Amino acid sequence: MSELQLEESRVKEAKEAKAQILDMESLNNPAAMKLYRRLDGILILVLFTFLTLGIQIQFTLTAGDWDYWVDWKDRRWWPLVTPLTLLMPIGAFTYGIWQRVRLPIMATALTTLLCLVAWGSHYLNFYKFTYFPLTFVFPATYIGVGILLDCALVMTRSLVVSAFIGAGLFGALVYPLNWPLIAAYRTAVEFNGTLLSLADLMGYEYIRTTTPEYLRIIESSTLRTFGGSVVPLTAVFAGFVSIVVYAIFLWVGSYVNKLVTFAKRIM
Amino acid sequence: MAQTRTANDVAVGSRESFGSKTAGHFKRNRIAWGFGALVLAVGAGLRLYMGMMAFSTGTDYYAPEFQTYWMPLLYGEIIVLTLFTVAVSVYMWMTRETDASKIGPELELSRYWKLLGIFTVMGLWAATVAITSVESDAAWHQVTIRDTDFTPTHIIIFYFSLPFLTAMLIPTFIWAHTRLPAYMNKVSLPFLAVVVGILMIMPNYGFNEWGHTFFYAEELFAAPIHWGFVLLGWSLFFFVPLVVQLFTYMGRSIAQVTALRTRQMV
User: Measured between CB atoms, does B18 come within 8 Å of chain A?
Assistant: First the structure.
């Protein structure tokens, strides 16, 4: 290293040390603390409002159909597709927020934001715009599994362990978490000599002209439609898939969060 | 004695207003909040228009009423957004700072607050789009027979709601990189990733519209043709490193300015 480079390095280190002393002093300065709190508040507002759009686009375009209609909330596809798609942004954001500010909040935050935006959106768009009854188009909730994932992180303090425990539970418990909301719609009814669920009957009565029955990606109707072990088997598989997806997106998040840098300007 | 408002007052609040809750960010960003109110009013107006007119006049592009009620809106949106983006971006570039050393710490901090003001407006717009617009398209397509070349919900979402986010982000990107010393003469990569990701959603509209011209009479919203939006929406992952950048520079700036102020008071 040349003399000049050494000198530059010393100057840089001295500047950084001086700035750090300034930072420490500011923690005892009420005026600075007031501004820091304001900065926190605004950045949280900005981050969460953008996240609202992000989680909405992610969820509605990959799993929205299962969430829009009560007759799509089946035992086989909905509990598998939903955690898979939700854990993509949750993994990427959890890595950054946990590594940078040590807050285990992103799963809860994103599922809560999704719940809020979904209720507003389903009310405005499916109820007020296209006139479906809210009992047919209410969104499911995922806040409970979000809390579990964050709890796993805060208790283990490990992204890897929380991926196994938290993401596994996230995937496995979607169906039981929502059971109180959808149980009534699983009541068996007979309609023109055919046995079907109340949810199916609603789907038959409230016609979706461009979403015909053969397009519905749900468990095929068989003699075991009202029985069998589909729920626990799906839960176990969804749990495994969730662990893998969450781990992959934690890894994506690790790369995204390395990008706190600048590039040379070309003009 | 007449009071004068200094750059320092602008940055950290005057002595009198230091304890006031209404002072500071909200008071200093009147332009941002006025603009935000205007933007939200336009958004609410468009949503009400869609609610009233979409099913009565918007199901068939070849019908005369579609040409009367929807196409002028589409042309207007394209003209307004193009003019807005180009004019504001050019203005930001032409009035750029050329000497970072002339920007004092107080002025720098006040500019950071302004940047956060416009980000807040964009964030509120993003949340509004999420609640009012995105799934209106799902609801529309799943209950109408596949309509023709243009669609009311697309005219609102693809030609105004989401592009307007880009229209605000591009000038903001230029403003930040020509006014804030930490960002001058270089390019913030997370900021660039957010802007480019949201900008690239626009070519994806083309892909989506092309896909819809196949005139399929059925619609899955989770269809592969929509996954491009999801992939580009992942550009929002870069918001975390961008927030970290702002946090770092603003934290340092606040420490510097408040230390200066404290020394002046002593």
Answer: yes
- Written as tens digits, the pLDDT of chain B (266 aa) is 344 444 444 444 444 444 444 455 556 677 888 888 999 999 999 999 999 999 999 988 889 999 999 999 999 999 999 999 999 999 999 999 888 888 888 889 989 999 998 999 999 999 999 999 999 999 998 888 766 778 899 999 999 999 999 999 999 999 999 999 999 888 999 999 999 998 888 888 888 888 877 766 667 888 888 899 999 889 999 999 999 899 889 988 898 888 887 777 76
What is the number of helices (H) and of strands (E) in chain B?
13, 1
A18 Cβ partners below 8 Å, 6+ apart? none
A66: closest chain B residue by CA: B222
Options 1.20.1050.50, 3.50.50.60, 1.10.287.180, 3.40.50.410; CATH for B26-265 is 1.20.1050.50
Q: How many residues does chain B have?
A: 266
- Distance between CA atoms of B254 and B103, rounded to whole angstroms? 15
pTM for the complete prediction? 0.89
**Secondary structure (3-state) at B187:** strand
What ipTM describes this predicted complex?
Answer: 0.88
Interface list for A 121-180 with B (CB within 8 A): 121-122, 124-126, 128-130, 132
User: Structural domain boundaries of chain B?
Assistant: 26-265
CB A246 within 8 A of CB A90: yes
Chain A residues near residue B130 by CB distance under 8 angstroms: 52-53, 56-57, 117, 121
Q: Which domains does chain A have, with CATH numbers?
A: 51-256 (1.20.1450.10)
